[in-house]
User: What shape does this take?
Amino acid sequence: MSAVAYAVPSILIFATAAVLILVGAVGVIALKNPVHSALSLIMTLFGVAIAFVAQSADFLAAVQIIVYAGAIVVLFLFVIMFLGVDRRQHANVEPLVGQRAFAGVGVVITVAGLIALMAKAHWVTGAMSVSTNGVALATGQGNVKQLGTAVFTTYLFAFEATAALLVIAVVGAVLLARRERTLQSDEVEV
Amino acid sequence: MNVPAAWYLVLAAVLFGIGAFGLLTRRSALIMFMCIELMLNAVNLTFVTFARTLSDIGGQATVFFVMVVAAAEVTVGLGIVVAVFRRRSSISVDELSELKG
Assistant: This one.
């Protein structure tokens, strides 16, 4: 594998995406102010979008920017501002003794295990999947048409189910965040 | 030629680890949700990488559905955070101990 010369632009793109993703992710867990964490999250999401474009997943990169950076992070920021928790500094306490150390060890073991598994197994062979019926993934100029065809034929049932899921989620969020009106109506009656 | 898929897979594994560490150590429910988003993005990156490597559009379709579920999850989760904050003026998960058995 070392004999293959990879094109310099692809290495530069990968390095840019990796720096954005890792710096943003560390910022999310290290910064004290939730607003700064949310802005770091945007950085990571843009890095992932770059990685998507580099791997010819153009539609997903657009959806990543629109849905994640455009909607989900705005929702996070809205809740942070709405609750007014942005000024409250969380004390750097450790309620469970040794929790950080245990978490660190567990995470290191998990990541090392993942990487070792990928290094040993023969998943990354460049062989073609058997489930595609011989239709190769279009690369270079995007595969929006291919993705649309797959979503509306092979995955049609799952696609319809997501519609129900989204409706249920919206109704549930409204019910959860609704202010109770019962006390006020009682007061009016009295 | 594009960089090998293993680079992206290792990057996704590290991103997943960072998200998991934050989820285990931070106390604010909002930051924990952001860490879940980090982990979901790591998995999405892995799916897209395998879609390219195996030349299978199914990986990208799966990422599409993961994004939908993530949006629904954040909506309901933040609704729960708002409801909890109304009752006890705090979003620290240490103070949610009613179900302690």
User: Anything to note?
Assistant: The CA atoms of residues 68 and 95 of chain B lie 31 Å apart. Chain B has one domain: 5-89. Residues 58-88 of chain B form the longest helix (31 residues).
